[in-house]
Amino acid sequence: MGGVDPSTGEILDRDSGSQGRSVCDSILCFPYGRGSTVGSYAIYQLKLNGKAPAAMVNQSAEPIVATGAIISDIPMVDGIDTSLMVSGDDVLVDASNGVAEIKGVEEQCVVTSILRNNGKILILRRSGEVRSYRGQWAGVSGYIEEGESDLDAAIREVMEEANVKVADPVRRIRPESFRSGNTVWTVHAFLFDVPSRQVSTDWEHDEHKWIGPEDLPGFDLVPGLDVVVGMLLGRVNQ
Known about the structure:
Blueprint: E1 27-30, H1 38-48, E2 55-58, H2 63-72, E3 76-77, E4 91-94, E5 99-102, E6 106-117, E7 120-126, E8 137-138, E9 140-143, H3 150-162, E10 171-172, E11 176-180, E12 183-193, E13 205-211, H4 225-232
Parallel strand pairs: 1-2, 2-3, 6-12
Antiparallel strand pairs: 4-5, 6-7, 6-9, 7-8, 7-13, 10-12, 11-12
Helix pairs in contact: 1-2
């Protein structure tokens, strides 16, 4: 109610980042609804005026939005991380099975391990020899190989990239996803305490530092590293 013009389908909400665009015949993606029960009828009015979206995608559906979708016969799914979608994406919605697929976007599952010693954490600068994020700072990261568990991948990567043997993590968090261009990186993150700061990096990195977590903003980081570190250290809620 008030966020969309029901007569034209134009988005009016200045805070949406999509002001001036039309919801008509599009896939309308937004985290959750807001406002009063009149919002259900605003959606229905869009339908009556032939300006309704083709489908709606929510992160967490509220009764107001869900009711509007039902009475307007608009396919809808929720439980979707809408932060991974951007305006202009080609999205396929299968409301019967609760699926929203972003066409042309590939998911890559990776591990990132943060090594900690006496309050300092290890970050590594990615070399010019790697395929992605050259020159940016990261934890000990790598792909999860087929048939490999995420923990086994983390332990293997720490040995390969830092020449450090680890076993049981101090903490792990549920996988977090971040989008960069046409790739969604799903990160399985672990925190390991190590007895020393003696590391030996491989060709994938050209420099490493032991820093305080508060110093992270001063570095050019790979996407999402600051969020992952905050969660692993209990500074950011998951």
